[in-house]
Amino acid sequence: MENNTDHTDSNNFSPLSVQDVDVDFLPIVYEIIRSVERDFHDNSAKARESQDCSQKVLELQKKFDIARSQIKRLPGIDYNKQDQIKQFEILRTQLRLKRELLQKYRNMCAFETSFK
C-alpha cells in the first residue's frame, strides 16, 4: 500500500483506487502496545515512554483521518448497496451486449472471407 504523503486540498477531489488508500495501521498499533507493555522502574523512563506512546497514538489518529479522507475519494463510495447492485447489473448488461456485437462482427467477417 502506498504511503501518500501529499494531502493538499486539490488532491482531495481526485479519485483514488483501492490500492492507493493507506491503511497500514498495524506497525503503529504494535508500537503502542509494545510501549504500554514495558515495565520501567525509573520514573523518568516511564514519563518519557508515556510521552512517546502519546505521540504514537496521535500519529495513529492522524493516519486514521488520512485513511478516512482517502476512502471518501474512492469511486462509488457514495452508492448504497441497492445502487451498487443496480449499477453492476447495468454494466453486466452492457458487457453482454458488447460481446454479442463483437460475436456478430466476427461472424460477419468470417462469412465475408469465406466468399473471397
Mean pLDDT: 83
Sheet bearing the most strands, described? none
Number of strands: 0
Radius of gyration: 26 Å
Structural class designation: mainly alpha
So what's the overall shape?
rod-shaped
Question: Which percent range describes the beta-strand content?
Answer: under 5%
Note down, in words, how this protein is organized.
It comes from Parnassius mnemosyne. This protein has 116 residues and is mostly helical. It has three helices and no strands. 66% of the residues lie in helices and 0% in strands. The model is unreliable at 1-11 (pLDDT under 50).
Give a summary of the structure in a few sentences.
This protein has 116 residues and is mostly helical. The chain is 66% helix and 0% strand. Mean pLDDT is 83; it is low at 1-11.
